[in-house]
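ok so for the tutorial part 2 we go from a plain amino acid sequence to predicted structure tokens. step 1 is just haveing the sequence, like this:
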Amino acid sequence: MSLRPVRVRDLRPDDPADAEAVVRVRRAALPFMVTTAEGVAFELGSARPGARHRLLVAETADGRIVATAQVGLAHDSPEPGQSYVNACVDPAHRSLGAGTALLRAAEEHLASCGAVNVYAWVLDEPAPRAFAERHGYRSSRSAHFLRLDLAAAALPPLPRDLPDGVELRPASAFAGDPRPLFEADAEATADEPGDVPAELDDYQEWLDGVWHDPALDHGLTSVALVDGVVAAFSAARTDGRTRYSSAMTGTRRAFRGRGLAKLAKTDSLHRARAAGYTDAFTGNDAGNGPMLAINAGLGYEICATETRFTKRLRGAAR
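step 2 — the prediction. this is what the tokens look like for a chain of 318 residues:
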């Protein structure tokens, strides 16, 4: 049986229907991720020129968007030639050739940008893994998605008395000068497990792409300070309704081993529940034992696993 044709094109940033369609596809394919139409528009509009970022969609002959992909260069990596493509297909519209068409377009774009290696996150299920392997990708590290029923969870109580010199504040308290949060994020990101190392070394870029992200909730993001210095944080992203996600929880090197990351995340979860959020999600590299232990202690349970697949693009220098 022949496949019904699909057409791949770029998302139209001035068409709200496109962004809503991408949200619909992402929620169907990856229900454990927080995504909104406003966030989709921001993702495209805030991308740095050096990333050569594109947001592709695949649509059927009748104009229905059934799959989407993020593609670009890992411009924040100190290793040149690293790139990414993360595609998802609406489960109700598989076997139309949409994933293959998206991947072909993505790889052509990356090759034209000089990419050498391309990385893709793939759900650790038989069909997605087989698809990646058929297209020449090989598996590497894995990561888990975790979910917490925030409405019913028995969260650990916050201590009545914090250790001497320790205090908790929301990120909104740094609205006038968020640079200390940038510095903490940069240090934690540099130590995060992953195939492609990342460096946050541009404060303005961080402001534009992280601090001003409409999904980042400054009031629910918790920061632990020690003697007035930012020591740990737990960043919160939300859909503005019921879904909350921990975007990053990290501790600066000088303050590790003191339970500050767990303290900040516990505080953020309490804030989120008080604000009416009912479903909490997070993600961890499978080898990040300390963070997995913290999340298990908070009541999170693994709800899905992704595997990072990689491919050397044809024609890349050897």
